[in-house]
Write a structure and sequence with these properties.
The structure holds two protein chains of two kinds. By secondary structure, chain A is an alpha+beta fold. Chain A contains eleven helices and 15 strands. Chain A has four domains: about 160 residues, no CATH class; about 90 residues, DNA polymerase, Y-family, little finger domain (Dna Ligase, domain 1), CATH 3.30.1490.100; about 45 residues, no CATH class; about 70 residues. A five-stranded antiparallel β-sheet of chain A has the order 11-15-14-13-12, with no helix packed on it. A four-stranded antiparallel β-sheet of chain A has the order 2-3-1-4. The radius of gyration of chain A is 30 Å and the shape is flat. The relative contact order of chain A is 0.08. About 10% of the residues of chain A have low confidence. Chain B is α/β, with parallel strands linked by helices. Chain B has two domains: about 70 residues, no CATH class; about 180 residues, Rossmann fold (3-Layer(aba) Sandwich). Helices cover about 35% and strands about 25% of the residues of chain B. In chain B, strand 9, helix 9 and strand 10 form a beta-alpha-beta unit. Chain B is globular, with a radius of gyration of 19 Å. The chains are: A alpha+beta, B alpha/beta. The interface between A and B is large, with 62 and 67 residues. Strand 9 of chain A pairs antiparallel with strand 8 of chain B, so a sheet runs across the interface.
């Protein structure tokens, strides 16, 4: 388990709920937590959102990359949040409070990281903090040096239990957000809004929640309802429909902006709600996108993004020719999503980087369409149809080969690309003329 | 190659009755054309109701060309299914429309691996790449070997090689790729698919306007399938023997072609 904690200053319950729905796109285990009493200051006035990212981080290119995705998303929505990543929820929250946003992957590393931090970062009540202060201890390391029984006796069982949850010796009771069957999110304004353009910023946040929720379900919407609540008036409901199902928040916002601009408000708006009930298969083809040149690459990027999000960056690649005479090294693969390529190891890590792409004229003789990832041991084929083509190469890097390649007849009339290792004399199947 | 289709007011209003309009929609639908809107329609599009109406009209008309990839409301002589020529003249002559069905699923059922089952589709893949669309290989059983593909005129930069963990994910990835209009052909090796699953893939291919090329074992020929075209492949003395097991809008046949694979 690895937990990412998002620490948000002063948020109402509705906003935290919306953000939790947004976070479902990164993890199926999301737990929002409001501070117990709203008026306390310091650490306890912060709203918390926990995401279990141990299961999903690989899909997003590792914990650091995932943290960057989430931080960027929060910033785009105008949230000032702090993040922490640790193997325990309390650990992640404490690191977020401390401003340590580097992921701490293990319990032992967490203990080391906690050692020098001040006791004031612990999520305890003012009374519990007072009790700690009276001892003269300063760092969390000093406190953790005490045996658990002594801590419980001296500071009470609650403090002791909290420290055990912090260090992963006791499980954290978390209430997980259950992905709701329909989407409903709301946001209240401290002052009533009289202009519909002022609704766009809160709407953008609500739509981000909808987008995250839809991504988590791999669904799209074709219509949704905006509910503008007024004081002393019935709420105004605005239905927004699209030509095709989508979940692109930007597109949803564009359509809403048009509708809101044409709307005359009957009264100032006290709160804005967003509801969506029908969820459909997402369609990449967007009928109302009229830029033909950009369209193809955007559509391709969309599908690559989706594949990468589910399968990981190393699973979606393009292929290249590499300038090497050894058949197993005459190619290389490159992540199709270039922005992540720095953080992933290609499947073909053992292969040299692709050199300048040789023209067809420079290619060696004919090659089969299929190459076996590992040559397979076979008996000497009964029927050799063509060959040999001698390939001797690679003396400079120790992976040198000396082989005679033949075209051979395989089972069911298949054509095999086989070779005889000139040193061992053994035969191997290396490709298929598919 | 891509060309722009202009939808003007008359053709929009004429709707399904106008040949040129239907042909335009057909081209748009199968990715051969980009949509352009006549300048005098632009102010109309600015108002959302009209815009919605035009889009709805477009949507309706597209419905009528969807279905089995053929334009409705025309007598048989005018029915055209979108195809991608296989570039083997003897095969194109036998296939309805003269090529691989576009916006549909084709099943290729080779007797064994290595008989020319990939070379058979390479000329079409090369043409799709030249037309600017990509080709997705979803979890192929072996490495599609770049030095060979380049020799067959495949643009490697147009190729996506997708590796998956399990058969279910492979199906999901296949469906995603089929749905994407920027991808002109999807090669996949589905396992454990039933009629319902295949129908989903068929719908995805329709929506993306791509050639879905599914490689399946020959035993699958006994099962029912919604695929537009089903071919049984086996090695001939020279070349590749093709049994047209099923061809929507055509007849069953057999033919031998000579892919350049083992030449």
């Amino acid at each position: 388990m690895l937990w990412l904690c998002i620490l948000l200053p002063r948020h109402d319950r509705a906003a935290l709920h919306n953000l939790a729905l947004w976070a479902l796109q990164w993890s199926s285990q999301v737990s929002p937590c409001m501070p117990a009493d709203e008026d306390a200051d310091g650490a306890r006035a912060m709203a918390l959102l926990w995401l279990e990212i141990g299961a999903s981080r690989q899909l997003f290119g590792g914990a650091t990359a995932l943290r960057a995705h989430i931080a960027t998303g929060l910033m785009a929505l105008g949230y000032e949040a702090r993040l922490g990543i640790a193997p325990t929820p309390q650990g992640a929250a404490l690191l977020a409070r401390a401003g340590h946003d580097e992921p701490v992957p293990s319990l032992s590393a967490l203990r080391v990281r906690l050692q020098p931090l001040p006791l004031t970062l612990l999520a305890l009540t003012p009374a519990q903090h007072d009790a700690l202060r009276s001892t003269g201890l300063e760092t969390i390391g000093e406190l953790l040096a005490f045996p658990a029984a002594a801590l419980a006796r001296r500071f009470g069982p609650e403090t002791s239990a909290y420290l055990q949850r912090l260090c992963g010796e006791r499980p954290e009771p978390l209430r997980m957000l259950q992905s709701p069957p329909t989407f409903s999110s709301r946001c209240e304004f401290s002052g009533a809004l009289t202009d519909t353009t002022a609704l766009l910023f809160p709407l953008q946040r609500l739509l981000a929640g909808l987008q995250g929720y839809l991504r988590s379900l791999d669904r799209a919407v074709q219509r949704y309802t905006l509910r503008l609540e007024h004081r002393g008036h019935a709420a105004t409901c605005v239905q927004i429909g699209m030509a095709r199902p989508t979940r692109a928040a930007a597109q949803l916002l564009t359509l809403a902006r048009e509708r809101l601009a044409a709307l005359t408000l009957v009264a100032p708006v006290q709160a804005l709600g967003l509801q969506a009930q029908e969820f459909l298969q997402p369609l990449v083809l967007q009928m109302d996108c009229f830029a033909p040149g950009i369209q193809h690459s955007e559509q391709l990027q969309t599908v690559i993004d989706r594949l990468v999000a589910r399968l990981g960056n190393a699973a979606v690649q393009t292929l290249r020719i590499a300038a090497d005479h050894r058949p197993e090294r005459a190619w290389s693969a490159l992540a199709a999503q270039p922005e992540y390529s720095a953080t992933t190891t290609p499947v073909t890590a053992a292969l040299p980087a692709a050199g300048a792409r040789p023209g067809v004229a420079e290619l060696p003789s004919l090659r089969p369409c299929w190459l076996l990832p590992q040559p397979r041991d076979i008996d000497r084929p009964e029927q050799l149809l063509a060959g040999p083509e001698r390939i001797e190469s690679g003396w400079w890097d120790g992976a040198d080969i000396a082989r005679d390649y033949y075209l051979a007849r395989g089972t069911a009339g298949a054509h095999w690309w086989v070779y005889r290792d000139l040193r061992s004399g053994a035969w191997h199947l290396h490709g298929l003329w598919a | 190659m891509s060309h722009a289709v202009t939808l003007d007011q008359e053709s929009c209003e004429a709707g399904g009755d106008d040949d040129r309009y239907l042909a335009s929609l057909h081209d748009i639908r199968f990715g051969k054309a980009a949509i352009a809107i006549a300048p005098r329609l632009v102010p109309l599009l600015g108002k959302h109701e009209e815009r919605a109406a035009v889009l709805a009209r477009l949507g309706e008309a597209c419905q009528s060309v969807r279905g089995d990839g053929q334009i409705g409301n025309h007598d048989d002589s005018q029915v055209r299914a979108a195809v991608q020529p296989t570039e083997f003249a003897e095969l194109d002559a036998l296939l309805p429309g003269g090529g691989w069905p576009v916006g549909a699923i084709t099943e290729l059922m080779p007797e064994a691996a290595g008989i020319g089952e990939i070379s058979l589709v390479l000329p079409a893949l090369a043409a799709i790449g030249r037309a600017g669309r990509s080709i997705a290989w979803i979890a192929p059983p072996f490495l599609p070997y770049p030095p060979a593909l380049v020799r067959h005129g495949i643009a490697l930069e147009k190729m996506l090689w997708v590796q998956v963990r399990d058969a279910r994910t492979a199906l999901w990835a296949t469906e995603q790729a089929l749905r994407c209009p920027a991808i002109g052909a999807v090669l996949a090796w589905p396992e454990g698919v039933d009629d319902r699953r295949l129908r989903r893939l068929q719908l995805a291919a329709e929506s993306g306007g791509s050639c879905g090329l599914l490689y399946r074992p020959q035993v699958c020929a006994r099962e029912h399938s919604p695929a537009a075209l089903r071919l049984l492949l086996r090695a001939a003395a020279t070349g590749l023997h093709i049994d047209i097991h099923k061809a929507r809008g055509g007849r069953t046949h057999a033919v031998v072609v000579h892919p350049a694979a083992a030449a």
